[in-house]
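New to this. Please check this fold:
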Amino acid sequence: MLVKDFMTPNPQVVTPEASVPEAAQLMKKGGFRRLPVVKDGRLVGIVTDRDLKEAMPSDASSLSIWELHYLIAQLKVGEIMTPDPITIGENLPLQAAAKLMLEHKVGGLPVVREGQLVGIVTVSDVLRAYLAREAELLKEAGA
Protein backbone atom coordinates (compact mmCIF):
# COMPACT_ATOMS: atom_id res chain seq x y z
CA MET A 1 0.00 0.00 0.00
CA LEU A 2 1.57 3.22 -1.16
CA VAL A 3 0.80 6.80 -0.12
CA LYS A 4 -0.30 7.68 -3.68
CA ASP A 5 -3.02 5.02 -3.54
CA PHE A 6 -4.76 6.60 -0.54
CA MET A 7 -3.86 10.32 -0.63
CA THR A 8 -6.19 13.05 -1.81
CA PRO A 9 -4.59 14.25 -5.05
CA ASN A 10 -4.35 17.94 -5.94
CA PRO A 11 -5.71 19.29 -2.64
CA GLN A 12 -7.12 22.78 -2.19
CA VAL A 13 -4.31 25.22 -1.35
CA VAL A 14 -3.82 28.82 -0.28
CA THR A 15 -0.98 31.28 -0.69
CA PRO A 16 0.83 32.94 2.22
CA GLU A 17 -0.84 36.22 1.15
CA ALA A 18 -4.37 34.83 1.57
CA SER A 19 -6.30 36.27 4.49
CA VAL A 20 -7.14 34.16 7.52
CA PRO A 21 -10.91 34.54 6.90
CA GLU A 22 -10.36 33.39 3.30
CA ALA A 23 -8.55 30.24 4.50
CA ALA A 24 -11.21 29.60 7.14
CA GLN A 25 -13.94 29.87 4.52
CA LEU A 26 -12.15 27.43 2.18
CA MET A 27 -11.71 24.94 5.00
CA LYS A 28 -15.30 25.22 6.12
CA LYS A 29 -16.66 24.95 2.58
CA GLY A 30 -14.44 21.95 1.75
CA GLY A 31 -14.93 20.23 5.09
CA PHE A 32 -11.24 19.76 5.78
CA ARG A 33 -8.95 20.66 8.65
CA ARG A 34 -5.72 21.58 6.94
CA LEU A 35 -4.62 23.57 3.91
CA PRO A 36 -1.21 23.37 2.27
CA VAL A 37 0.32 26.80 1.68
CA VAL A 38 1.96 27.18 -1.73
CA LYS A 39 4.02 29.99 -3.21
CA ASP A 40 5.25 29.98 -6.81
CA GLY A 41 4.21 26.33 -7.10
CA ARG A 42 6.27 25.22 -4.08
CA LEU A 43 5.00 24.03 -0.72
CA VAL A 44 6.03 26.58 1.92
CA GLY A 45 3.76 25.71 4.85
CA ILE A 46 0.54 24.30 6.16
CA VAL A 47 -2.30 25.95 8.05
CA THR A 48 -4.70 23.95 10.21
CA ASP A 49 -8.05 24.61 11.80
CA ARG A 50 -6.19 24.83 15.11
CA ASP A 51 -3.90 27.57 13.72
CA LEU A 52 -6.99 29.52 12.68
CA LYS A 53 -8.66 29.14 16.08
CA GLU A 54 -5.50 30.27 17.87
CA ALA A 55 -5.30 33.34 15.61
CA MET A 56 -8.78 34.46 16.62
CA PRO A 57 -9.04 37.01 19.41
CA SER A 58 -10.17 36.09 22.89
CA ASP A 59 -13.80 36.63 23.89
CA ALA A 60 -12.40 38.84 26.65
CA SER A 61 -11.09 41.37 24.12
CA SER A 62 -12.05 44.98 24.71
CA LEU A 63 -12.19 45.69 20.96
CA SER A 64 -15.50 46.19 19.22
CA ILE A 65 -16.80 43.55 16.83
CA TRP A 66 -15.96 45.82 13.88
CA GLU A 67 -12.40 46.34 15.07
CA LEU A 68 -12.00 42.57 15.54
CA HIS A 69 -13.29 41.80 12.04
CA TYR A 70 -11.00 44.43 10.56
CA LEU A 71 -7.92 43.10 12.38
CA ILE A 72 -8.66 39.47 11.47
CA ALA A 73 -9.22 40.42 7.82
CA GLN A 74 -5.71 41.95 7.77
CA LEU A 75 -4.06 38.80 9.16
CA LYS A 76 -2.38 36.69 6.46
CA VAL A 77 -1.99 32.92 6.34
CA GLY A 78 1.79 33.32 6.10
CA GLU A 79 1.79 34.85 9.58
CA ILE A 80 0.11 31.88 11.28
CA MET A 81 1.07 28.86 9.14
CA THR A 82 3.58 26.19 10.13
CA PRO A 83 6.49 26.79 7.77
CA ASP A 84 8.34 23.89 6.11
CA PRO A 85 5.91 21.18 7.21
CA ILE A 86 6.84 17.52 7.47
CA THR A 87 6.14 15.92 4.09
CA ILE A 88 6.16 12.48 2.53
CA GLY A 89 6.79 11.15 -0.96
CA GLU A 90 3.98 9.58 -2.95
CA ASN A 91 5.83 6.30 -3.59
CA LEU A 92 6.56 5.54 0.06
CA PRO A 93 4.58 2.92 1.97
CA LEU A 94 1.49 4.18 3.76
CA GLN A 95 2.99 2.78 6.98
CA ALA A 96 5.76 5.39 6.68
CA ALA A 97 3.12 8.13 6.62
CA ALA A 98 1.40 6.63 9.67
CA LYS A 99 4.73 6.48 11.52
CA LEU A 100 5.56 10.12 10.69
CA MET A 101 2.11 11.31 11.80
CA LEU A 102 2.44 9.43 15.09
CA GLU A 103 5.99 10.62 15.76
CA HIS A 104 5.21 14.26 15.05
CA LYS A 105 1.65 14.24 16.41
CA VAL A 106 0.08 15.60 13.22
CA GLY A 107 -3.12 14.56 11.51
CA GLY A 108 -1.97 14.91 7.94
CA LEU A 109 1.04 15.23 5.67
CA PRO A 110 1.48 17.07 2.40
CA VAL A 111 2.61 14.66 -0.31
CA VAL A 112 5.36 16.06 -2.53
CA ARG A 113 7.22 15.15 -5.69
CA GLU A 114 10.41 17.18 -6.24
CA GLY A 115 9.14 19.96 -3.99
CA GLN A 116 5.79 20.17 -5.78
CA LEU A 117 2.62 19.40 -3.85
CA VAL A 118 0.80 16.44 -5.40
CA GLY A 119 -1.54 15.44 -2.59
CA ILE A 120 -2.29 15.19 1.08
CA VAL A 121 -2.60 12.09 3.24
CA THR A 122 -4.39 12.08 6.58
CA VAL A 123 -5.02 9.78 9.52
CA SER A 124 -8.45 9.11 8.01
CA ASP A 125 -6.77 7.86 4.83
CA VAL A 126 -4.58 5.50 6.85
CA LEU A 127 -7.64 4.17 8.70
CA ARG A 128 -9.48 3.70 5.40
CA ALA A 129 -6.53 1.70 4.05
CA TYR A 130 -6.41 -0.43 7.18
CA LEU A 131 -10.12 -1.23 6.95
CA ALA A 132 -9.83 -2.06 3.25
CA ARG A 133 -6.95 -4.43 3.97
CA GLU A 134 -8.87 -6.08 6.82
CA ALA A 135 -11.86 -6.61 4.50
CA GLU A 136 -9.55 -8.22 1.92
CA LEU A 137 -8.09 -10.57 4.52
CA LEU A 138 -11.55 -11.56 5.77
CA LYS A 139 -12.71 -12.20 2.23
CA GLU A 140 -9.64 -14.37 1.52
CA ALA A 141 -10.13 -16.32 4.76
CA GLY A 142 -13.77 -16.99 3.92
CA ALA A 143 -13.11 -18.06 0.33
Remarks:
- Residues 123-142 form the longest helix (20 residues).
